[in-house]
Design goal:
alpha/beta, seven-stranded mixed sheet, 16 strands
Length: 410
């Protein structure tokens, strides 16, 4: 059998649909984020990054870098293995204590990524609580979907942020059955924010646990960066909080925070935790420094929100179609995968602006978009260049029903 032909056929299909991804070869410039150097066969040149999830620029913060350098000097490079064998360090213990404090929980558990934390925790919970029914928002992240699928338990999908539809499905569940509502605080592709208080009310009414993904909110919202649940005063009503160290905190890794017994059970039974090498000491030390800084500093959060508001207003003034929302995410709608990639290729090649096209399966077909993430380090001048470039493209490309008809010839 010609196995390679199978892979070629699948890749050709992806390319024909306009969904084949090409990674830009970038090297971030320490101290001058959001600029980076773009490397191509023709050489290297500076560009501006507009799609980073290092939302606050903490990946370049002096405190974070100093902590990572110090950890390398004190503990070396690797962690030594899985946490169960020889991979627990003092850095892991301190960071878990810091995370638990951030979310007002008794305990926390580190993972190599928030994806792994979601998949491992949600699948394990279903094995630990036989028959538990998962009620999942239809726009939940792929990691949550995979965790729910791997748990092989009963599940109900409710319409996005629709508490009436959620209650209808909760009513249909057998009385006394174990239940869990699984949702996100900030939905990263649309920028929607969940009606958290209403969901918590339903959880109490129907005896359900709550599982909240705060990945796109930790560090960014709340008085100390605890996320939307902290901002809304609802942390005590959430049973399990999932978060990341790779976005607002600018480093790498994921975690859950919950009651001590819950974290201990996941630690003891989740394969995704048990058999994974733990985060390197330098990574953990950097995340610890970032979290401690953002607990006391509000400058980054305030500037971040101002930058998001400013960019949205500039896009509105320029008649650039973006999806209005209450968060920091700025989705600029295109509606076609081929044109979406053509626009982002043109932005990079002609304007030195890096934005990745967001296509299916990340978003539904027909809703392809650019996802802009303005941060506190983006300047007014960089915003002006971005909006002018988008205006040039929108003026050159006729639109119909919110989608590009064609892309102007270069």
């Amino acid at each position: 059998m010609d196995y390679l032909s199978i892979f070629r056929e699948q890749l050709d299909g992806l390319k024909a649909e306009g969904r084949y991804r090409v990674f830009a070869d970038l090297k971030r410039q320490c101290g001058s984020f959001p600029t980076a150097i773009h490397h191509t066969d023709a050489g290297a040149r500076p560009i501006t990054v507009w799609c980073s999830n290092d939302y606050l620029g903490m990946g370049q913060h002096p405190k974070v870098l100093a902590a990572m350098h110090q950890a390398i000097e004190e503990a070396g490079a690797g962690s030594g293995g899985t946490r169960n064998i020889s991979g627990t360090t003092r850095y892991h213990v301190e960071l878990e204590e810091e995370i638990a404090d951030l979310h007002g929980k008794e305990s926390a558990l580190l993972f190599t990524s928030a994806y792994v934390a979601n998949e491992a925790t949600l699948s394990t919970l279903q094995r630990l609580i036989p028959g538990i029914i998962i009620f999942s928002d239809e726009k939940n992240h792929a990691s949550m979907i995979e965790g729910i699928r791997h748990g092989n338990g009963p599940k109900k999908i409710f319409r996005h942020n629709d508490v009436e539809n959620l209650e209808k499905k909760l009513k249909e569940a057998p009385i006394g059955s174990p239940k869990m509502i699984v949702f996100e605080s900030v939905y990263s592709m649309d920028g929607h924010i969940a009606p958290m208080a209403a969901i918590c009310d339903l959880a109490k009414k129907y005896g359900a646990m709550t599982y909240l993904d705060e990945v796109h909110a930790v560090g960014l919202y709340g008085a100390r960066g605890g996320g939307i649940a902290e901002r809304e005063g609802l942390m005590d009503r959430i049973d399990i909080i999932n978060g990341t160290l790779a976005k607002g905190f600018g480093v790498m890794g994921g975690y859950i925070a919950a009651k001590r017994e819950i974290c201990d059970a996941i630690r003891s039974f989740a394969s995704g935790f048990i058999f994974s090498t733990s985060l390197a000491p330098a990574i953990t030390a950097g995340a610890l420094a970032s979290m401690r800084h953002l607990k006391s500093s509000t400058v980054e959060r305030e500037r971040h929100q101002e930058r998001a508001r400013t960019l949205k207003q500039k896009l509105k003034d320029a008649n650039i179609p973006f999806m209005a929302n209450p968060s920091h995410i700025v989705p600029v709608m295109v509606g076609d995968p081929v044109h979406c990639k053509a626009v982002t290729d043109t932005l990079l090649g002609h304007y030195g602006i890096y934005v990745q096209p967001i296509n299916y399966p990340t978003v539904p077909k027909g809703t392809e978009r650019m996802r802009l993430t303005p941060g506190p380090l983006h300047t007014d001048e960089q915003m002006a260049v971005l909006v002018a470039a988008l205006s040039d493209l929108w003026n050159a490309c006729p639109m119909a029903n919110g989608k590009f008809v064609r892309l102007a010839a270069e």
